[in-house]
Amino acid sequence: MKDTVKIKEIAFNNLIQNKKRTILTITTVSIAVSLMLIVLTYLYSDDQRNKRSVIDEVGESHVQYENITNSQLENIVSNKNIKKYFTTIIPNDIVAKDFL
């Protein structure tokens, strides 16, 4: 216990004796933390902006159907509630696997 108190006293005395270095260290750490927060805030807001852009472009909700027949596709196309639709065809030689 005595060693711990002695280390605390040495550290405190060192901080008091080297005021310029202490202030410089505190300032440097503060600037580094501030810059990290600025970068993280920018990345978060950029991600949110990209999400809003996709929602504005594609819509809030979307559905993916696989292996539908031509009559099912005609029903989807003729539905008045569906504003946009996209069709893709996966060739037989390409195998689509689940992400699990």
Structural overview:
- By secondary structure, the protein is mostly helical.
- Helix content is 65%, strand content 0%.
- The protein is built from three helices and no strands.
- It has helices spanning 2-17, 19-58, 70-78.
- It is elongated and about 85 Å long.
- It starts with a helix and ends in a 22-residue tail after the last helix.
- The model has no long low-confidence stretch (mean pLDDT 85).
Low-confidence stretches: none
**Number of helical stretches of at least 4 residues:** 3
- Kindly estimate the percentage of residues that lie in beta strands according to DSSP: under 5%
On the 0-100 scale, what is the average pLDDT?
85
So what's the overall shape?
elongated
Q: Mind describing the biggest β-sheet?
A: none
**Secondary-structure element order, as H and E?**
HHH
